[in-house]
Amino acid sequence: MKIANTPDGSTAESSVLSHAIANDLREGIMLGRYQLGTRVRQDELAERYGTSRIPVREALRDLESEGLVVLVPNRGAWIAKIDIEECVEIYKIREYMEPLALSESLKLMDAATVEQLDRLVQQIESAHELEEFLKFDREFHLLSYRHAKMPTLFSMIERFWNTTQHYRRAYSRVIGREGQWIIHHEHRLIMDAISRRDSVDAEQLLQVHIRRTRCQLQKNERMLQLVTASK
Q: Whole-angstrom Cα distance, residue 56 to residue 222?
């Protein structure tokens, strides 16, 4: 991806460039195109995108705030990586954060969003490719929280989803399509609670959904370490 710079190098244009660079890097990181824990060199990125280092630096700062990049003063930038113990800790936190977000969102959710969520559940079940499954699964859950008027909570949830993405991918590879049946079943139960506007059921079902995944991550810890290490 080549991004043309402008002659004047204005602040506004730099912001546009940094946004475009951040989008491209984010997509690559989320799709697993970058080796986790590897160094990101600003001069190489600037050359790749055909721009100066200023918008590259801004893009990396944005990705750091999302949990995708780690910036170390006077040393450089690295693709963020967490170990399985950190992943399990995050899932334990998510068991309480996300049910709250869903409950708050459900109070203000419109009918169009409910219909869109239902379509996403169907798309998750019909997805043939792993990246499609991960994409629709992420969209379903984050959209279900979107109406909660709690931007700080939503930002934390989104960051946690970003930092654990490679474990979800590895876990999905381990269980395969034949092992996804319980995920689909849980999604349908959550969707039913959303359709009934039952926040109590929705909270409890989502908590079980996240906890079960966390327990499976712990059960398959050794295998997941091997899978993620090979990426």
A: 36
Q: How far apart are CA 212 and CA 139, in angstroms?
A: 20
Sheet of 69-72, strand order: 39-40, 76-79, 69-72
d(CA 92, CA 214): 7
User: Residue ranges per domain, the chain?
Assistant: 11-79, 84-229
Q: Provide the token pair at 36.
A: 């986790």
Q: Which fold has domain 84-229?
A: Four Helix Bundle (Hemerythrin (Met), subunit A) (1.20.120)
Q: Which fold has domain 11-79?
A: Arc Repressor Mutant, subunit A (1.10.10)
pLDDT in tens, 82-134: 888 999 999 999 999 999 999 999 999 999 999 999 999 999 999 999 999 99
Report the 10 Å Cβ neighbour count for 1: 12
Residues of the chain with pLDDT under 70: 1-13, 223-231
Output the six-digit token pair for 134: 């991960």
Residue pair 122/114 in contact by the 8 Å Cβ criterion: no
